[in-house]
Every structure is written in structure tokens, then in C-alpha cells.
Design a protein that fits this description.
single chain, globular, Ubiquitin-like (UB roll), binds FE2/S2 (inorganic) cluster
């Protein structure tokens, strides 16, 4: 069991299991968190990791820019340590950006998008 401490909520901590997705565990314990697809594809459940380690190999929604900014996809991410997260839509400040004003650099795209296999 690991402990999740929300950085942007007061008086809340959660106990979570390493084998279960964080979204599932947090919602079961009363965490009122946004979600959509629940398979790692839509980004609605994103949270920002402030401390700790998660395994989110199954996510397909985040680009490298978002991952480098600390975002994790709670519906597929599993904790690998005690973690601190900014949760909910108020953590999404750096998640989206206008692609016309600030286009992604080629190295920020996923390899399969920047250089598709032929
Ligand atoms: S709910 Fe869609 S990515 Fe998590």
C-alpha cells in the first residue's frame, strides 16, 4: 500500500494499491475526479505528479511535452511509491496549449507520429 497526498486539497490522503489504477482507488475513497474513457486515451483524468513515481506505460494520450511537465493519466497509472499529486481540473493549467501559437517541436511528439514506420 502506498499513500497519495493531493497537493491542492486540504485534509485528504488516500491509501492505494500498486496493482490498481489510481483513478479507481481514489474515486472509491471519495475522490471527486474527472474522467472519460478510462483506458488512457482521452486525457480527462490527467493529474500533475509533484513527488513520487508512477507506472503509466499504458497511457496513449500524453505527448512528451506533457509528460515532461509532470502529467500522469490516473485511469491507467499505478503507484510505485508514496506520491503527491495535483488533482482535478485545477491541475490542468499546463496540460493544453494552443498548437497554432506554440506548436510542438518534433522531439516533443511521439515517435510514431513524428516518424511513422513505412
Ligand atoms: S479517463 Fe480518459 S485518459 Fe483517463
Amino acid at each position: 500500500m502506498y499513500r497519495v497526498t493531493p497537493a491542492n486539497r486540504v485534509d485528504a490522503t488516500f491509501e492505494v494499491e500498486s496493482r490498481r489504477p489510481l483513478l479507481e482507488s481514489l474515486r472509491e475513497q471519495g475522490g471527486d475526479l474527472p474522467y472519460g474513457c478510462r483506458y488512457g486515451g482521452c486525457i480527462t483524468c490527467a493529474a500533475k505528479l509533484a513527488a513520487g513515481i508512477v507506472n503509466q506505460r499504458q497511457q496513449v494520450a500524453l505527448n512528451k511535452h506533457q509528460i515532461n511537465a509532470g502529467y500522469v493519466i490516473l485511469c491507467v497509472a499505478r503507484p510505485m511509491s508514496d506520491i503527491t499529486l495535483e488533482i482535478g481540473v485545477d491541475s490542468h493549467g499546463e496540460l493544453y496549449r494552443n498548437p497554432f501559437l506554440e506548436p510542438l517541436e518534433p522531439d516533443e511528439l511521439k515517435a510514431c507520429i513524428a516518424a511513422p514506420k513505412e
